[in-house]
Amino acid sequence: MASVHESLYFNPMLTNGVVHANVFGVRDWVTPHKMALLVLLSELGRAGAQLGLLERRRLNRLLLPLLQGPDMALSRLRKAIEECCPHLAGSVHIRLKLMAEGELKDMEQFFDDLSDSFSGTEPEVHKTSVVGLFLRHMILAYNKLSFSQVYKLYTALQQYFQKDEKKDGADENEMELTNPEELDGKMEKEELAGPLREEEIACSGPLSQKQAEYFLSQQASLLKNDETKALAPASLQKELNNLLKFNPDFAEAHYLSYLNSLRVQDVFSSTHSLLHYFDRLILTGAESKSNGDEGYGRSLRYAALNLAALHCRFGHYQQAELALQEAIRIAQESNDHVCLQHCLSWLYILEQKIFDSCVLLEHSVNKSLHFGLPYLASLGIQSLVQQRAFAGKAANKLMDALKDSDLLHWKHSLSELIDISIAQKTAIWRLYGRSTMALQQAQTLLSMNSLEAVNVGVQQNNTESFAVVLCHLAELHAEQGYFAAASEILKHLKERFPPNSQHAQLWMLFDQKIQFERAMNDGRYHVADSLVAGITALNSIEGVYRKAIVLKAQNQMSEAHRLLQKLLIHCQKIKNTEMVIRVLLCIAELYWRSSCHTIALPVLLQALALAREYSLQYLASETVLNLAFSQLILGIPEQALNILHMAIEPVLAHGAVLDKGCAMFLVAKCQVASAASYTPQKKIEALESAILNLNEAKTYFAKVDCKEQLRDVLYFQARLFHTLGRTQERNKCAMLFRQLHQELPAHGVPLINAFK
Amino acid sequence: IGRAGAMAAAAMVAAAGGGDFSDLREIKKQLLSVAERSRERGLQHSGKWAAELAFALEPLPLSELPPPPVLTEEDARDLDAYTLAKSYFDLKEYDRAAYFLQGCKSQKAYFLYMYSRYLSGEKKKDDETVDSLGPLEKGQVKNEALRELRVELSKKHKAQELDGFGLYLYGVVLRKLDLVKEAIDVFVEAAHVLPLHWGAWLELCNLITDKEMLKFLSLPDTWMKEFFLAHIYTELQLIEEALQKYQSLIDAGFSKSTYIISQIAVAYHNIRDIDKALSIFNELRKQDPYRIENMDTFSNLLYVRSMKPELSYLAHNLCEIDKYRVETCCVIGNYYSLRSQHEKAALYFQRALKLNPRYLGAWTLMGHEYMEMKNTSAAIQAYRHAIEVNKRDYRAWYGLGQTYEILKMPFYCLYYYRRAHQLRPNDSRMLVALGECYEKLNQLVEAKKCYWRAYAVGDVEKMALVKLAKLHEQLNESEQAAQCYIKYIQDIYSCGEVVEHLEVSTAFRYLAQYYFKCKLWDEASACAQKCCAFNDTREEGKALLRQILQLRSQGETSSTDVAAPFFLPASLSANNTPTRRVSPLNLSSVTP
């Protein structure tokens, strides 16, 4: 009875009533392709010393991908060998031909001889080497074959060989054409991703478990690190379906299919694959661990957690929360602290979408450190830093914290987190308005070598941090007027993160923002207006803000004001301080444009106070510029000059070109205004220096192609020259002004009254 | 000359046209002759079906027996080869049969030639599966003959040289090559040319997946079409229509047909009308005591009703007839399951699967057994296998949901229940399960929707209303809660079930309290009196009655007769008939 009971427990190997060969632990079996490899190996052993060093090295490089890769047609294989050593390819072909056109006993003899390579005092092959293991696997698999299977293998070999012969005769030329790119002889999967692909799938047949594992891990790591190099979603899915058709128990394939569905944002099939994966995993988990329950209880928790992650990814926050609650509950019941920490991190991410909660995060960091989860801990630290930066905590403390977490990363070589940390720093420096520092950090990340030395060729470069850094870089370049460079960077981004990928939205937003700025500078407001819709789709707050700017530029003051007030209230509610200050500045500008400088002043002061509090230095200087302008108009240019000295330095150091130009223009105006009370001698000096400043402003404006501002500067300069009596220069400026003036439509805003 | 058979068949169609059953003798003649012709071609199942049906009709006098088929010149030429090959064929030596039939021109011999090649390929495929080079190659094993057969048959098809049987074989080959659309066309053609061949109709049934597809088929207008329609309605779960068709067939004179009786029983089983199905099955067993087909369904019914002795008798009986049949294993499995010997039950389901790997019901049943054994991981596996065999197996999806619910993962199992619900939109069990999950997740709005829909589609277990009422109670929506309880009580009483329903007392208690609060003394006291009939609420009922009396005597209202009949608001007493066909509930924005 006992034996009966034993067999009652579910036997995973029994599917569809047929016992799988896996039961015997055979993960590999003999195929014609493998036999060709065996022939190659034995020929390699036979050739021995005759081979040149270079040929030998090339062959060795070829061997590993061949042993691990999927089966391929004989012609391809021959081609690959030929490129390394034509002589060897010939002898392999002859041996195969002899075997295929001979009798069954030739094959039997071949396998008998194979095991000889291990014997002797100095064997050709070490038993434990890669090649040795492969040989032994093959011999074992061959010995396990039944009579009919051996015969089948032999006929398969004959077919394999004949197919090649036929092909060889038929389209010799075509082969020449299709395979010129395999120069380095690497037969990696991605090389097949050309037009050859379709045909290749058809003839490659099923993968053995080893080959399938190799394929899956390769694709998964490509998906993580460099998506563009992985197979296209459709063909990858096809390959996976193929794999699953042959072995439905291959759970990992379901997971890859889940990842693949995520790539194309397919919520239905990704959920389906994820759940299927865990349904399958539960079994293997239970099987692999003797203490059954632990194995699959664990996968249950992670199943729920992964489901939460999936819903979060698709923006179903409520569903994600429910799933997360479930994961937390199960993890608590089984005292799995590690899983709980993961849950806690996710909880923070979810809560963040709803409201800020530092407490959770601090807790998470502490606990993770306690349980020795450096990854989670420093991820937590980084999130904390980000949050505190928005909350206006002291910058030095934040940088300190980042430095500490960096220490942690380097200690545990968490290369991914190092990237994130650098991207974080770039963003924080940008937030503070230190573009030079941001630029430096961005360049650091881009020129840093990845820590993952395992595959040198594959750098981690489709992570979010890269996207962030590159976007910032593009914007920084655009600010400095290097539009060609910026668009070059954006082009690169487009290639690296194709529009359907996860991080594509980032560059889309930045791209549109840059275009918007350019359109505004050129005065093409209708173009800017058309971009607003796109920006709104990606970031609604930014979109509204830009809409207001366009309205302002089009002199629809009341409407712009209404929009800005709404935005202000909203931003104050969600504590987006940066945007609050920007909105305040915009409102102030609206006021002074309507000549209500006295009303603008308190608004500006409010903005200044906020900017100082949150140490957003650049916004602070911009506010000061606005203040100075208001003071100038209110008739206290000396005071204006005084506070301008505060702002001019950071603006010149970190500001966008346009801002620099505006600042210099303003300085010149203030100088001229304050010169009115000077003695004639001093007045001339002041005017001279104003002209110099105007020249500087002019070069800045020319850089970003701001014709309107340029025209204003020229007019102003011409007046100054006139006052100084330098007719020739005056005329030159006047002429340039005239040219520009004809190009541009006249505006209602009086020249002097505008500062931007 | 080669089309003689086809012509003859066409003539027969003309004789039987219009789907009318007035001339049963003619029908019987046709059935007998087609049974003979199917047998000649080795199509045993179709032959069996026709013979069974013919048996249900009155016997013919000698003079009216169909004449033996007329032999043509070609038939005579191929007769020797055919006779030899047919005997090889019957002995399952297909290659040998095909060898001797090479070059035969007559329709009969040609069909047998092609058919034995097809069967030889299938047999080799099955053998190969066990003996393949590796596990992953298994999926690759194909019937090698299919391609060649397709090429040859399509040539003949183009030249219009195929008779009804040939077309049928062509269709089978196409279906095996997954060319579904072409296969359907060919089967329809086959049905036109030879409507009497049940095999072609049956294949068509397997290929049609929904009602829409059925509408667009142009089928021959014969009495066979009625059988086909009845069958496909059963397959598509359009039970009402199917039952109607079968009833009209019985009325037409096929009342003795065991086939029709069994189909009706299965149909009742599908709509869970257990009593009717049971009685019909018992009738069937009387008429055809050695029948094994459909007995698994019968055992399911016995299982649901926990009729141990009957199930035991059935199991022993079937075991005596043939113990190596899938149905027998299934019945025995059910028997052990009912006796709570789940290990043994699982063993028998496994055996059923060994006998027929495509017998999907066994995977699901095995899943249930593992659930009983608390071996959740094995249960999940079994259910997953069932889904792999048939994605539309709602029981497996439901089982998966239950498993995860047992593992206390209410959110996780939502997905599975939703799948099950999508497959059977008007099955209340899935809806109640969904509602319970939502309730556990504290998503009461969704839960209410589910319970309400469960009630609307006709609740089987009669629990949806109580659950809904309790939800309303929780949410302090006393008005709705009371209405639900009223409906529930109505339902229970209208069913006339004497079975003690646990929740009836709860319902009365709540109603009594509710009416008491609303100061509807008459109703309140009526309900309170009802309460006294139950053990657990007796004391409360009495207390309430006392209170009511007290209050009444204080207030001294108009009348004092307590014996008012049980009051029901008129608006509610209208018995709403459950809607039959409904689309799946859209439960939330995300229903993957």
| CATH fold-level assignment of the domain at 209-452 in chain A | Serine Threonine Protein Phosphatase 5, Tetratricopeptide repeat
Overall shape of chain B: elongated
- End-to-end Cα distance of chain A: 93 Å
Q: pLDDT under 50 segments of chain A (min length 5)? A: 1-26, 171-204, 285-293, 453-458
Structural classification of chain B = mainly alpha
Q: What share of the residues of chain B lie within helices?
A: 55-70%
Strand order in the sheet with the most strands of chain A: 1-2
User: DSSP helix count of chain A?
Assistant: 36
The N- and C-terminal alpha carbons of chain B lie at a distance of 59 Å
CATH superfamily of the domain at 209-452 in chain A: Tetratricopeptide repeat domain
What fraction of residues of chain A sit in β-strands? Answer: under 5%
CATH secondary-structure class of the domain at 209-452 in chain A: Mainly Alpha
Largest sheet of chain B: none
Largest interface: A-B, 64 and 49 residues
CATH architecture of the domain at 209-452 in chain A: Alpha Horseshoe
